[in-house]
Hints:
By secondary structure, this protein is an alpha+beta fold. 31% of the residues lie in helices and 25% in strands. It is built from 16 helices and 29 strands. The strands form seven sheets. The chain has a nine-stranded antiparallel β-sheet. It has a five-stranded antiparallel β-sheet with strand order 2-3-4-5-10. Strand 11 and strand 12 (187-194) form a beta hairpin.
Amino acid sequence: MKSQVNPSFRDDxxxxxxxRALISGNGRQGALxxxxxxxxxxxxxxxxxxxxxxEPLPAPPTAAALPRLRELLDTGRFGDAARAVCDLAVQDHxxxxxxxxxxxxxxAATITFTPDRPGDGxxxxxxxxxxxxxxxxxxxxxxxxxxxxADVLAVRVTGAGGTVRxxxxxxxxxxxxxxxxxxxxDDLVLTGRFTGDLWDGAPDGWTVAVRVRRxxxxxxxxxxxxxxxxxxxxxxxxxxxxxxGELLEEHAEIHRxxxxxxxxxxxxxxxxxLFDAGRYAIISSTGARPPTLQGVWxxxxxxxxxxxxxxxxNLQAALLAVHSTGVPELMPPLFDLLDTLRDDFRENAxxxxxxxxxYAPAHLGTHGRQNHFGPVWCLTFWTAGAAWxxxxxxxxxQHTGDREFLATRxxxxxxxxxxxxxxxxxxxxxxxxxSPSYSPENDPGHGRHQASVDATLDVQAVSGLLxxxxxxxxxxxxxxxxxxxxxxxxxxxxPYRVNDAGELAEWIDPRFPDNHEHRHCSHLxxxxxxxxxxxxxxxxxxxxxxxxxxxxxxxxxxxxxxEMGYGLxxxxxxxxxxxxxxxxYAALERISEAYWRPNLVPTHNRDHMFNVDLAGxxxxxxxxxxxxxxxxxxxxxxxxxxxxxLPSAWPSGSVRGLVARGPVTVDLxxxxxxxxxxxxxxxxxxxxxxxxxGSLVVRLSAGAPATVHLP
Length: 711
């Protein structure tokens, strides 16, 4: 049976701007599809194609200066503490005299098809179920997709002939690149060679092979990007021989399975299409590595923030719906990436703080060294990165029940992260202090300095890490020699602070006033995931979290905000977790109106900067409004809330295939007449179920769906 192309949306945009292109990808390679009847363009990128621009350096040696840094922070000399790190770094290596960035994810090449039949009636669209992009006009149809099975871009143009050429992406590289293009009849091979002053271990370049085959009624283009230099004949010979239909059949079966795990019906509400568009982008940009800031797409030499992996919220937002929408196989690429960077994380911990364990910097790319910081953006003071990443290991376990993963991957990573914090946290009068500290990118009270002490996120992330370790060892039935130390630090963590406005404070240290006019909301970290027992046990603390959400949302909904849409998505997820349906919906509406272009790819700021963080954040927000779950403990009991933040705008709807922590798969159908839920667990399990009308206990048998009808 032939795969059909049924675009999930259409528009009539002709564009020469790669940021407004339609997207297709298999995670390893991405294609930006754009142009007009005058010329079709396909800009290719590869998940491993980072140009070597900035040599990685060892993290600055600040461990010996830690007592002095803490003294400066204790006496309120926050800027001096940040500048002291910069001074020490320059003394160690002159390369720290300026800001050091990770290497950029670059475009590999642009293939241009110039048809011999231009015309009018232009239309374009993307089929989310197959990953096929269709562009058409005046009887000419161009279909394109990036195959998951064959790892190639396949383009078929019917109704016209034309010429095919290949060239580097537009613009000027940050460092020199030498190009050659080999012509073998219709076939083409572009080779890009990195030149200049390269360091040991830097990549040498890349190869793009393009095969062109013609029939009386069509043109077939098959292309592949390969990191590294390959002889043209070898690169061409490695391309598959199959036709477009055969390639599509093999690919569509894999892609359709991933995309079809969840089906959402909101009666045609716009959020339904954006939910699908976001899931499509994340699925299409997850390969052997997780999505970068731009997924697996790039049409430039200098993407914003170099388009690596930013772990103070961006990457976490991009991956936030992976588990709850039933595609857990998209998460191990993150763990694989972290494995390759583990030695750098260990060296960071040793050089920055003189400690064992793991320290993960905010920006990751071809290396994991802490190289990016400055006198204002004092990122060496952010110690919560690895603890936040540890939460994603716990999420994978909670949503899959994979005990082998728990024992062989999660437990070793979490143990090393805890080892760092056991040494870093100071215990003063029985209370743990985190100094230095940093609440991602926020400056307390509109101050000039981001350096701080006792950011709430530090306490939350470490608390979740330690509780997770204790749950893992109990679940596996193992004893750990550090268990007593974990419990000791957990008991010493300070209570959360409520500020004078009755809000959950972003810093536990009262010297730091809250600044709600900001894109991050890191002190709401527990509500992005399974919550925190402290808020379940203390209604006043929960009420303070609600006030904090509402205060920050007021800024986001004002005209003063124009940044980082994924931050609004995280704020909306927190609102939904706290049962604030209308607030969560207000966040969703602002995101939908301001941060998506007609190509249904989100932007970082309002209509500015191609960026996929929201592609994960928006689906996560929709899921959070429909389903909430807390972590299942060693007893296996699942705690699930149905429709915890259902807005009045969605009186009826259905969703199939959501996954709650436990794991439990949940199908929901609701209307003003009532709610039906179908729950399925891979193991015998008790579920404590809450819903808008009350609560009940459901007992599940392994693999047997249980249907619950509720008023």
